[in-house]
Amino acid sequence: MKYLLSTLCVLGFCVALSAQSKTTESLNERYPNSRVFFFYNNTLRMLNQTEDKDFDALIKDIEKMKFLWINKPATFGTTDYKALTSNYKKESFEEIMTSRFQGKNFDVFTKEANGKTKGMLVLVNDSTNLYVLDIVGSIALDKVSKLYKMLDNNSDIQKRIKETFTDHRKQH
Fold this sequence. Notes:
The chain has 172 residues and is of the alpha+beta class. Helices cover 47% and strands 31% of the residues. It has one domain (20-171). It has helices spanning 2-18, 22-30, 41-47, 53-59, 78-90, 144-153, 155-171; strands at residues 35-40, 62-71, 94-101, 104-113, 116-125, 129-137. The chain has a 6-stranded antiparallel β-sheet with strand order 1-2-6-5-4-3. Mean pLDDT is 77; it is low at 1-18 and 168-172.
């Protein structure tokens, strides 16, 4: 019985470490018109239609990724964004990088356990949208913008995401 209980506790702890952020879940619930996409490692590999070896190396340590796209209401301001990043920090995410790229602000957070990166967050904030990549696993920091560009600029992926987002907004 003790063995079973110990095993269940260890499994529960492992699942908790690999779960995606509660803050991201809360954000998704707060903005019901947001769009959510899940990508698993195999899904990301299928998206790599050009068989780009650099891209395969980029995604090799991603177990799963939740992509949350929020068309920000006019009431979403700097205070809301600061509260959001504060909530991620309360979940033991550490801010490791902040930058600007093509008019968008990027904030990258990591969560570590036993010296290994277990999760990453990439927040992309501009004047009209907030994008959250909630990653179980990791990607090299110098490759974050490449992943975002691939999701944003790949014509097939971009077309599907934008069509889905536009259709969803029309329904609400």
